[in-house]
């Protein structure tokens, strides 16, 4: 595994609302530390950083634009020169111009981190893979929440996270650890 000089780090939905207690129990309590380590590495190396911000269409969402949950957490706030992509659905490529911007910049390799693993991370990684990008998901720099499956069976955040990563690995993306990403360049 080798990172390209212009590999983009895509940070998904690191907004204040994702910390709201009503979202329930989550997995991977060190995910933010790992995201911050990757972000610091990207900033030092001068590689592109892309911040994805969810602007919900639903007034009861933690990402509804009319309240502070939509704002970036200060520790993940975009810096000058970093990209901001706003989305209204889980997939960061949908109606956002992201693909065109990546192609114009000559970026072919993506590292995806953020939340929620089974929602915005998975849908964005699926599209990235389908579009032909060399897509990596840093499994320990993502997290999700407990969720019932379609049949009503309660699933832990760890189970939801694991199944989502299993859906992605080998078909849409390569699932790696943040340590593997950092070691790759």
UniProtKB/TrEMBL annotation:
Pfam (any one) = Isochorismatase
Main EC class the enzyme belongs to: hydrolase
UniProt keyword Transmembrane present: no
- Family annotation (Gene3D superfamilies): Isochorismatase-like
The GO terms this record gives for MF are: hydrolase activity
Keywords (alphabetical) are: Hydrolase
Give every Isochorismatase-like domain span: 7-150
UniProt EC number: 3.-.-.-
Q: Does the keyword Amino-acid biosynthesis apply?
A: no
InterPro entries reported for this sequence: Isochorismatase-like_dom, Isochorismatase-like_hydrls, Isochorismatase-like_sf
The identity of this protein, by name, is Cysteine hydrolase family protein
The organism named in the record is Pseudomonas iranensis
- Upper taxonomic lineage: Bacteria, Pseudomonadati, Pseudomonadota, Gammaproteobacteria, Pseudomonadales
């Amino acid at each position: 595994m080798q990172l390209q000089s212009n590999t983009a780090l895509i940070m998904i939905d690191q907004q204040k609302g994702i910390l709201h207690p009503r979202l329930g129990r989550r997995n991977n309590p060190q995910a933010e530390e790992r995201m911050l380590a990757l972000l610091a590495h990207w900033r030092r190396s001068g590689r592109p950083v892309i911040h994805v911000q969810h602007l919900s269409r639903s007034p009861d969402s933690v990402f509804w634009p009319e309240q502070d949950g939509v704002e970036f957490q200060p520790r993940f706030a975009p810096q000058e020169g970093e990209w901001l992509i706003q989305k209204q659905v889980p997939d960061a490529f949908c109606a956002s111009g992201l693909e065109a911007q990546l192609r114009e910049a000559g970026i072919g390799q993506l590292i995806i981190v953020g939340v929620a693993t089974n929602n915005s991370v998975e849908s964005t990684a699926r599209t990235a893979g389908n579009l032909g990008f060399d897509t990596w998901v840093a499994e320990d720099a993502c997290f999700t929440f407990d969720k019932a499956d379609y049949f009503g069976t309660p699933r832990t955040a760890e189970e939801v996270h694991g199944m989502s990563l299993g859906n992605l690995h080998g078909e849409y993306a390569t699932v790696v650890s943040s340590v593997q990403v950092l070691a790759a360049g």
